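Quick note —
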Amino acid sequence: MLNIGTGRFLKWPKVSRQSISIYTLLLSFFHVSLVFATDVLPQQTTETLSVKSILFSEKVDFLVTLPNDYLKQTDKHYVVLFDLHPRSHLYLAGMHDWMSHNGGWPWLETIIVTAPDGHQGLGKLKQGAIEQQGDQALLDFFEQDLLPAIDKRYRTNGFRIFNGFTGNAGLVLYSLINRPSLFNAYIAASPVLSTDFAYVLNDASKKLKNMQGKPRFLFISTSDSGFEQRQLDSFAKLEDIIQTHANHKLNYQIKRFDGSYYMTQPILATALGIEMIFNDVHTVLAADSEVSQQGTKAILAYYKRLSDEVYGFDVPAIDSLLALGNSLVKAAPQQAIGVYQDTLKAYPKAHSAYHELASVYAATGKMTQAIEAEQQALASTDHPFYQNKYTKQLAEFQK
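Predicted structure written out below.
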């Protein structure tokens, strides 16, 4: 027996040496497992961005989570997503980690920024936007203070997303309608619109009709949950306004997630909104598409327009060019070679284009050119998967 204190005893069960060894082994296993789990989990960098403004006396501390490779890939620039709800940070950072870890597909790597809880100055700006028609002090703060502070401190690529749920979703729409240039894309989940909230319904028809500048994305959604019933009439009015008055500058989707829970709405809207926003980045043009049928120049022009006029960052045409080339390999190998060569003129480091070029050279008996192209493919990537693939292919060509 083990004496613990005065007059209290704890009896240990009889334990054999063999049992102790088993317990020790199990404890060691769990310890190793926990260490291993910690090693494989991404170590996100989260920090505070303090923003000063003449609009209030105290600085505002925004929470920022950086993409996992931000500190390593020092030449890379990133999308920014902003949300006014402080509790949204964890779900946004977690969703982004999952949806971007596979090569930024479907969510391009993004800097997540969320607002603090309880800042009086920021709260008054939001209140003014909601209650006073024409009050744009909140948008002034975004344009003059917050967004420049983000761009100054972090490597941003100019593409910004404004995300929000319920009342904050109403402010997302208020921002889109009154100053669309602040953000490139807007995601509004279950927006509050009734009782003249931020005067969205009053101003939307005229301002959407007259929207200018670069194209903007809007994903807006609601459901038939109990908490959203009072907003459904207003949502229907906004839906009609968008469908009737939005001009070609607004690329929008309107979704109903009927049958789902209220607190699930921002998760659904963010996930599908991200898919919609970056769909053109990830979608490969089919070889028989109208654009691809016009040849490599048309494909390159299509992606240049996406890069310059829609996203503001480089959207590569490589996969769509390769899709066209691959469609020609059997029936017209010389044309396929021409497509791959055009691809390499536009993207000299496109290792996949070198690999495809090597394959068609080999298929047409041009082994010297095939070996040279495969060597170029190998030299153009340091990715272990592709290095292994190209090394094996090169060995086959050299037999």
